């Protein structure tokens, strides 16, 4: 058993700092893993590196990790097939020209948010589908990739964490059941989780902020630059 201390913040702090400064997600995660094991090993570098490698191996050979990797590859393959066969382009044309459901930047973003909200059973499938359907529409109506990713991901997370009939709900009920069995709290896990949804204040605030960025010109400086670049027809930032 490890005593909690401020050193527990080292791994997430290092990961977040590197992700923002280098924009290299995999590198940042690896450094965060090593930093975490460094704290657990009482700052013995050799032990930390050895445990980090073993930890990565244990995760990659586990059933749940293998299922996620295979599932993501299969869904990505189907989406790529839809692209190369013209299915995605046909859907874009149908939504924007024939049915006139998507007519501009606002409806494009609402479509991306709606897809991630409706496919709440699996977050991987929701994000991949949202990107495949709304990505080309965003390019057509000059919505920045950054803005679309922000809208889709934050809406999805807020909805997923408020719906109990998905993987998140099952995981949370498992945690609550463990606390009930230990005698720390009393009650039925599903009932406790259902009552806690109304206190998911971060999710409601996140959705409100997403809607604010969609319907107004409000955005943070970095996003404002991305949106300005996209409005000029430049899809990717320099570099």
SS summary, helix count: 12
Q: Specify the biggest β-sheet.
A: none
Rounded average pLDDT: 86
Tertiary shape? globular
The end-to-end distance, rounded to whole angstroms, is: 46 Å
Gyration radius over CA: 21 Å
Characterise this structure.
With 239 residues, the protein is mainly α. It has a domain of 61 residues. It contains twelve helices and no strands. The longest helix has 22 residues. The termini are far apart. The model has no long low-confidence stretch (mean pLDDT 86).
Task: Reconstruct the topology from this structure.
Blueprint: H1 10-22, H2 25-40, H3 45-60, H4 63-84, H5 87-98, H6 105-118, H7 123-140, H8 145-160, H9 167-182, H10 189-196, H11 201-215, H12 221-231
Helix pairs in contact: 1-2, 2-3, 4-7, 5-7, 6-7, 6-8, 7-8, 8-11, 9-10
List keywords for this structure.
mainly alpha
Write a short abstract of this structure:
This protein has about 240 residues and is an all-alpha fold. The protein contains twelve helices and no strands.
